[in-house]
Design a protein that fits this description.
The structure is a single chain. The chain has one domain. It is 57% helix and 0% strand. It contains 4 helices and no strands. It is elongated and about 55 Å long.
């Protein structure tokens, strides 16, 4: 069974629902099956509803949005810590480099899923 943007299941899934489902690694259409099969690889088809997930291409959007989000979290935190406690530079580096890497690795697959969900909700293919 293949779903498209004009199907009843697609119309029941709004923007926020599709974004949340993608962010939580679930199919943006049915919300039941997993969206990814690896760290970033998207499944070719949804096991639950049969939606052709290969039609959705996130390309460069997820890294861009991830950098944007991580930057808006880390930079203010660095500035607040510097202003309030003024730790040594080595301590700043030991704190913020792993925090930046960890947050980036945590968010990248989720942001990719959210981009796929947004494409599904907007009816964007290929």
């Amino acid at each position: 069974m293949s779903e498209d943007a004009s199907s009843p299941a697609a119309s029941r899934t709004g923007w926020l629902g599709a974004l949340w489902r993608g962010f939580t690694n679930r199919c943006p259409c049915c919300g039941q099956a997993g969206l990814r099969e690896g760290f970033l690889r998207i499944r070719p088809r949804c096991d639950g509803c049969g939606l052709n997930l290969a039609e959705f291409r996130a390309d460069d959007a997820p890294p861009y949005f991830t950098i944007f989000i991580v930057g808006h979290i880390i930079v203010p935190a660095v500035l607040v810590v510097e202003r309030v406690w003024a730790p040594d530079l080595w301590l700043q580096a030991a704190l913020w480099v792993p925090a930046t890497l960890g947050l980036s690795l945590l968010l990248l697959p989720r942001v990719k899923g959210a981009v796929i969900g947004a494409q599904y909700a907007a009816g964007i293919r290929g």
